[in-house]
Write a structure and sequence with these properties.
Elements lengths: L32 E4 L9 E6 L6 H10 L18 E2 L3 E5 L8 H7 L11 H12 L4 E6 L6 E7 L4 E6 L6 H4 L4 E7 L1 H14 L5 H19 L8 E7 L12 E8 L9 E2 L6 E3 L13 E10 L2 E10 L7 H5 L2 E2 L8 H8 L9 H21 L3 E4 L1
Parallel strand pairs: 2-7, 2-8, 4-7, 8-9
Antiparallel strand pairs: 1-16, 3-4, 5-6, 9-10, 10-14, 11-15, 12-13, 13-14
């Protein structure tokens, strides 16, 4: 295999590192059966937070993560069909849009966007998350994205794992302090713009000028009220334009970075080849099929918002997802239960957005680390049998 020159955004002194792993024929992965011991060592759920802008893949991430705990995540049975809540065997995912202070008509009157902190009912959010953390049941209202109004409340029972996803999970200090682990999906402006053009021009017939105006109109509020939360996150999944194609503006080939804070309780950062080293790796073309512009990986130390972090990075995309097993064999500290589990999970969602690039890879890896964190905190084990 060939080791490349260092990636852009250079860190401290870099060195090459050759893999000595011996790989046989590609491993065939089988569907897993998940059995969960639900007796927790502490009262109340383990609480996970996911912050991101609208349209950045939170729903896909949630499907990947919750599947690792067993059962299919779906809206409350027999409840409101427009509910934003997803419930599986052990997890409950709450969409924080349900804590908007005003409905769509109310925001027209206030003149504020849903991104503005003044349009969030943080007092209610805090009280209900606190109650769920204490094992209580709450009556949570539903923000109906179809009608734009607040629907009648739904009953939420305290689960084993509570996941809060939305625009502002870390904005209120009282809520922020209740999380056991915090994740931020950070999509760069260039990628957002490329994605929106692809969707709104190709699928909805919008003009380029109207798309630019829409993006620019919401950018000040996003920059002021949503983006600063990444400073509080334990893991940031950052999606950037590729560096493999000069001046690329299509957003189809992505460079994705998994930025992991050092010293986070119950979290051991995964690494490539050699923990703590600085590695730049172009995988062997005979073992990993990849058409132009290829694939490049990076791992090394950095700082983020003044804190020490380690970074895993992938630029490019997979042609044959089953060959991911080759890359997986070079990653350590992944919290998998068996050889090939990352590849199996990626194949499970191979038709979902980001499944052939670092977005899906690092979301899957992050989900595995959350599963391990839950096991440590709850002093229990999720048994995955082939």
């Amino acid at each position: 295999m060939t080791m490349s020159a260092a990636c852009a955004q250079p860190l401290a002194a870099r060195k090459s590192f050759g893999s000595k792993a011996k790989l046989g024929a590609p491993v065939k992965t089988r569907a897993a059966r998940v059995n969960t011991v639900t007796r927790a060592a502490r009262d109340g759920p383990v609480i996970i937070g996911l912050a991101a802008d609208s349209g950045c893949g939170k729903s896909t991430f949630m499907r990947r993560m919750t599947s690792l705990f067993g059962g299919k995540a779906s809206p409350p049975e027999g409840g409101n069909p427009d509910s934003n809540t997803l419930i599986s065997d052990t997890t409950t995912v709450l969409c924080l849009d349900d804590y908007h202070l005003n409905d769509r008509e109310g925001r027209k009157k206030s003149g504020l966007t849903a991104l503005n902190l003044a349009e969030q009912d943080f007092d209610l959010m805090y009280e209900q998350v606190k109650d769920l953390k204490e094992g209580k049941t709450v009556q949570k209202r539903i923000y109906n994205h179809v009608t734009g109004v607040m629907d009648a409340p739904e009953e939420i029972v305290s689960p084993n794992i509570l996941i809060l996803e939305g625009l502002h999970p870390f904005a209120d200090e009282r809520v922020r302090d209740m999380f056991d682990f915090k994740i931020y999906l950070d999509i760069s402006d260039d990628v957002k713009f490329a994605w929106k053009i692809q969707r709104d021009m190709a699928e909805r017939g919008h003009s380029l000028e109207s798309i630019k105006a829409s993006i620019e109109a919401r950018k000040p509020d996003f920059d002021a009220f949503v983006d600063p939360q990444k400073a509080y996150a334990d893991v940031i999944i950052q999606v950037l334009p590729t560096q493999l194609i000069p001046d690329d503006n299509e957003g189809k080939i992505l460079r994705v970075r998994m930025i992991m804070k050092e010293g986070v309780e119950n979290f051991d950062a995964p690494y490539l080849f050699d923990e703590g080293s600085t590695i730049s790796w172009i995988p062997c073309g005979r073992k990993l099929t990849c058409s132009y512009p290829g694939i490049k990986f990076f791992y090394g130390p950095d700082t983020f918002f003044g804190e020490e972090v380690s970074v895993l990075e992938m630029d490019g995309q997979f042609d044959k997802l089953e060959e991911l097993i080759y890359v997986e064999s070079h990653l350590s500290n992944t919290s998998t239960k068996f050889y090939g589990e990352i590849t199996q999970q990626m194949l499970k969602y191979q038709n979902g957005p980001g499944s052939n690039n670092g977005t899906g890879l690092f979301q899957t890896l992050c989900g595995l680390k959350v599963r391990e964190l839950y096991e440590r905190i709850a002093e229990t084990e999720i048994v995955v049998a082939a």
